[in-house]
Amino acid sequence: MTERLRVHVDPDKCQGHARCKALAPELFELDEYGNAHEAGDGTVPPGLEDKVWLAKANCPEIAIDVIEE
Ligand code: F3S
């Protein structure tokens, strides 16, 4: 069974620490203020599951949600 993951950044919590972008550049984009949002619709491509959990664990603001679908 392959679990499918989706990532979401809560814009109210994100303070622009950018650790997510450093750890998983494929999954996050930064806006002009340095705040992150998920790339595309947030679907985590196969093979990037470890990176998304790592990014979530390293966000100091606990702004990253990973949804298992
Ligand atoms: Fe924001 Fe956390 Fe990334 S504060 S820029 S979601 S590491």
Give an account of the 3D structure:
It is a single chain. This protein is α+β, with helices and mostly antiparallel strands and 69 residues long. The protein has a single domain, classed as Alpha-Beta Plaits, CATH 3.30.70. It has a two-stranded antiparallel ribbon with strand order 1-4. The radius of gyration is 11 Å and the shape is globular. The structure holds FE3-S4 cluster. FE3-S4 cluster binds next to helix 1.
Mean pLDDT: 96
Low-confidence stretches: none
Number of domains: 1
Biggest β-sheet: count, sense, barrel? 2 strands, antiparallel
User: Which outline best applies?
Assistant: globular
What is the CATH class designation?
A: Alpha Beta
Helix content bin: 10-25%
Number of strands: 4
How large is the share of residues in beta strands? 15-25%
Q: Class by helix and strand content?
A: alpha+beta
What is the CATH-assigned architecture?
Answer: 2-Layer Sandwich
Hetero compounds: FE3-S4 cluster
Tally of contiguous helical segments: 2
Distance between the termini: 12 Å
Rounded to an integer in angstroms, the radius of gyration calculated over CA atoms is 11 Å
Could you name the CATH topology?
Alpha-Beta Plaits
Order of helices and strands: EHEEHE
Strand order of the largest sheet: 1-4
How are the SSEs ordered, and which strands pair?
Blueprint: E1 5-9, H1 19-23, E2 28-30, E3 36-38, H2 49-58, E4 64-68
Antiparallel strand pairs: 1-4, 2-3
FE3-S4 cluster (F3S) binds next to helix 1.
